[in-house]
Amino acid sequence: MRITAVTCVKNEGPFLLEWIAFNRLLGVTDFLIYSNDCSDGTDTLLDALGAYGVTHLPNPAEGRNYQMEALKHAAKQRLVKRADWVWVADVDEFLNVHVGDHTIPALVEACGDPQAISVTFQFFANGGIESYEDAPVIAQFTRSHNPDLWCAQSAIEVKTLTHRDFPLQYYGAHRPFFRDTIDKEKRPRWTDGSGRAVPHKFLVAANPRRIRKFPAAGARGFATLNHYALRSLDSYLVKNDRGDVNRENRAFDDTYWRERNDPAWEDLSIRRYLPALKKALAGMKADPQIGPLHQACVAAHVARRDALMAQEDYAAMYAHLRGLPELPPGERELMKELGLVA
After folding, report:
1. Listed residue (220, 230, 215, 225) closest to 260, CA to CA
2. Other C-beta atoms within 10 Å of 329: how many?
3. 330 pLDDT more than 50
């Protein structure tokens, strides 16, 4: 089974090796990675990873919509067209498969060989970790929101595995789309992360507010998508400075942090991958070309953190984020309504 992962990056150098090694454990055979405006060595490191199935291309976007332009370009590439499955995800997202041998083929089998599988996010909190450490993200951050409730919402976003026979119109960042004129009997077989048919309105993109999410309750029986959007406070500061890969010059305010920094739930299940992941990472870092390039990215990340902390505005942001309450906006109110807190 050929599985191609597609992603876009900007200054993600310190985290690339873990994400690539992890996805290879899942069964990913090829990576199509687009980069733009990197200043930390991300692009140079990607160019050195060909032996690990990585194809690195400059982002083709001419405007600000980097991700969608890259996905439009990716759909025409041989790596994507020849793949059995295409996995569109970001470098801070880790597919945690709970069935079989914990690989994508095992997930596909458990879901009954559909044409698409949409796996629900679980947002992992910062957990009070302030300092960046060159260590596996999946080991450091273990607490998240209640899996079925995020920021007073029961509908939570997804990312989607897409099979080659999906009647594709175009890839979206969260799910593929098919033409609304397609015959009903030709609509794709599409499941959630428990092998259940996705809700009809999600399937046909009938509700603009629900085209990339659906109720999370019961949706993670076979797989969860662990999203480490915050990481350490140091790394979040650098991320805020970098902006969002999806759009040019979009900053993250404290709402983004507060919504995702909910430590109500402990989930250690992804640690099942750690022994094999650490072994794979050690091999990559021992490579005489890859190891130094990775260390250069790490050094650039730390140097940028130091430079930002020397600026009054960023030092104030750091202190502000450190002092914010743990519960995200709206959740305490809902908990009071449900009688869970006084």
Report:
1. 230
2. 13
3. yes
